[in-house]
Amino acid sequence: MRSSQYLLSTVKETPADAEIISHQLMLRAGMIRRVASGMYTYLPTGVRVLRKVEQIVREEMTKAGAIEVLMPMVQPAELWQESGRWDKMDAELLRFKDRHNRDFALGPTHEEVITDLVRREVTSYKQLPLNLFQIQTKFRDERRPRFGVMRAREFLMKDAYSFHLSQECLQKTYDAMYQAYCNIFNRLGLNFRPVLADTGAIGGSMSHEFHVLAASGEDAIAFSDGSDYAANIEMAEAIAPTGERPAPSQQMAEVATPNVGTVADVAQLLNVDNSQIAKTLFVHAATADDAKNTSKTVQLIALVLRGDHELNEIKAEKLAQVKSPLEFASEQELRDLLNAGAGSVGPVNIQVPVIVDHSAAHLADFVVGANKDGYHLTGVNWDRDITKYQVADIRNIVAGDASPCGKGKLEIKRGIEVGHIFQLGETYSQALKAGVLNEAGKHQIMTMGCYGVGVSRIIAAAIEQNHDDYGIIWPDAIAPFQIALIPMNMHKSVRIEEATTALYNQLTAAGFEVFFDDRKERPGVMFADIELIGIPHSIVIGERNLDNQEVEYKNRRSGEKELLNIADIVSILQ
Ligand code: ATP
Ligand code: MG
Ligand code: MG
Ligand code: MG
Questions:
Q1: Cβ atoms of 149 and 175 closer than 8 Å
Q2: Could you give the CA distance from residue 4 to residue 193 in angstroms, rounded to a whole number?
Q3: Which of 184, 245, 240 is closest to 210 using CA atoms?
Q4: pLDDT tens digits along 62-102
Q5: Spatial separation of the C-alpha atoms in residues 152 and 139, rounded to whole Å
Q6: What is the ipTM of this complex?
Q7: Reduced to 3 states, what is the DSSP secondary structure of residue 139?
Q8: How far is the C-alpha of 445 from the C-alpha of 101, rounded, in Å?
Q9: Rounded to whole angstroms, how far apart are CA atoms 376 and 352?
Q10: Phi, psi of 265, deg, nearest 5
Q11: Looking at the CA of 141, which ligand is closest?
Q12: What is the DSSP letter of 469?
């Protein structure tokens, strides 16, 4: 590719509205442009990377025995009514009507459509097991689209669905998918961890998520340093102010206790419905030492912000006025509103396991320091003790605690969920009556698994893990181009042009994707762009080196430069 025939669209300045590095770099490197909230156009460089990720996913899925299909993005309401999810889904499911006034939705996932297909096409046990996948655009009207393609509304997903007649058979495919996912993320060159995941929301028995480790990750994942134990503490949705809340799962509860509780724990303690808990305020020891001293009984203040119930002496109408703790200028103001005089903060001072809410939506929540029982709020110095919620705080809380499997210590890291595998069981096949004739000639409902990969999210996750001050550092497998050719003052030198063109033809013929920067730009501009878009290998063609039949090679990741003989280039890079 010659840059003169390409749409490079690089930007020097860091876009003001992009919070995390991957979003900034994807904009600056000319990979994406925002069309509307959570919706992006992929520019040529973005598409090249997207297709690479897609292809690796496709290859590994195919290798693991899955077969590719392609379903429509628009789905009829009837199927969702049949599964019962038409009423259960909140506004994340974008619904609309066609010209005949029929209801439709933009597909956020495809369990219904695939189960409908399979119940029609598959009639005998002889056709099972079957694992069908697609790589397709999804739409979820996310409450808070953010971080570019990381949490978009329209995004690319690989979703697979498997059909079986026995749990053993499902387990086999599940294991194959687990392995395929490991292969995918290894090939992508990502530092990732599979973790046990919450099965609450969809139902089902077994689930793993695959997380790319990165400080900007929205999920907190708990590891044991002494065993393979790893689990996701996904509380973002559970504590979010509106919408459906997934029930905490068995695995969650295991990780959760004794120091990590769920919104359900709080609800139970307050004797209110989950949905009435709209906002929580974290209270725990201010320092690592304090945390250790009080590690088993971390204090939490939960403010119930909605609902018309009475919470001890606190009047409902007072609670209704509490919009957000952030709105209070001082402790006194909050106290006044709650009618809680000095020393009488009892009604809102409830001892429960701490809620770990790692969602970005709650980053602004307060963590209040206090190191004596019953000393919360009364002893708080608003300016000194109220800090932003940080993962480090949670780490302090759990520090010293054994992992649920009893081996090693529990450690919390941040992760980006890039894949999710799930044993669905008969949830959808029952609802849609998807069965086949089994070996005994009897009609039997199939059991299902589903397997998702966030193809577009992977790009952002890869950048979070691979960048420096100058830009992106692509893992070779997903780089938009492998090699950049940067000729010095080509427009003044026929010799440079000829040498670069010859090299370009050679490398292209050898199967490399080569970016030939033939712009009339200063060398500095070219270097900066090539580093920004993260091409792994670059070759500078200059007059002086050409005298010795040499060019300068630079490795983007190591930064190392060396002079190479032109005749050796192809074989060295191969
Ligand atoms: P999250 O917890 O981040 O909201 P999810 O659990 O809702 O994700 P799944 O239903 O498991 O997502 O979908 C499979 C995969 O699709 C996820 O593992 C993730 O990589 C990707 N994905 C989900 N939502 C989005 C989104 N809004 N933007 C980009 N990728 C997404
Ligand atoms: Mg989600
Ligand atoms: Mg999730
Ligand atoms: Mg998931």
A1: no
A2: 41
A3: 184
A4: 999 999 999 999 999 999 999 999 999 989 999 999 999 99
A5: 8
A6: 0.99
A7: strand
A8: 33
A9: 13
A10: -60, -45
A11: 1
A12: T
Distance (Å, whole) CA 190 – CA 193: 10
CA distance 352 to 78: 43
**Spatial contact of 139 and 153, defined as CB atoms under 8 Å apart:** yes
CA 3 to chain centre: 33
Chain centroid to Cα 43, Å, comes to 22
| 312: region left, alpha or beta (phi > 0 left; psi from -120 to 50 alpha) | left
Nearest to 137 by CA among 155, 158, 112: 155
Answer for the pair 77, 43: CB distance below 8 angstroms, yes or no: no
Closest ligand 1 atom number to CA of residue 419: 18
CA 246, 251, 254, 260 torsion-angle sign: negative
Q: What is the 3-state secondary structure (H, E, C) of 161-219?
A: EEEECCHHHHHHHHHHHHHHHHHHHHHCCCCEEEEECCCCCCCCCEEEEEEEECCCCCE
φ, ψ of residue 482 to 5 degrees: the values are: -85, -35
Give which of 472, 462, 455, 460 is closest to 181, Cα–Cα: 455
What pLDDT, on a 0 to 100 scale, did the predictor assign at position 436?
98
What pLDDT sits at residue 272? 46
Q: Which ligand 1 atom sits closest to the C-alpha of 453?
A: 15
Residues 6+ apart with CB under 8 A from 295: 259, 397, 398, 399, 400, 401
The answer to whether the CB of 173 falls within 8 A of the CB of 128 is: no
If one counts every other C-beta atom within 10 angstroms of the C-beta of residue 269, the result is 15
List % helix, strand, coil for the chain (3-state, nearest 5). Answer: 35, 25, 40
| CA-wise closest residue to 516 among 568, 524, 502 | 502
CB-based contacts of 289, cutoff 8 Å, min separation 6? none
419 lines ligand 1 (CB under 6 A): yes
Q: Which atom of ligand 1 is nearest to the CA of 153?
A: 27
Q: Which residue has the tokens 């005298």?
A: 547
DSSP 99: T
pLDDT in the model for residue 111: 97
Question: What is the whole-number distance in angstroms between the Cα of residue 208 and the centre of ligand 4?
Answer: 9
Phi, psi of 255 (to 5 degrees): -70, -35
Note the pLDDT of residue 225.
63
Question: Which residue, among 335, 342, 338, 336, has the nearest Cα to 320 in the 3D structure?
Answer: 338
Closest CA to 142 of 198, 90, 211: 90
Ranges of residues in the chain whose predicted pLDDT is under 70 = 198-205, 220, 222-412
The CB of 108 under 6 Å from ligand 1? The reply is: no
Note whether 28 and 15 are within 8 A (CB). Answer: yes
Place of tokens 């110095």: 381
Counting Cβ atoms within 10 Å, is residue 5 exposed (0-12), middle (13-18) or buried (19+)?
exposed
Q: Where do we find the tokens 């996913």?
A: 57
Q: Is residue 194 lining ligand 1, measured as CB closer than 6 Å?
A: no
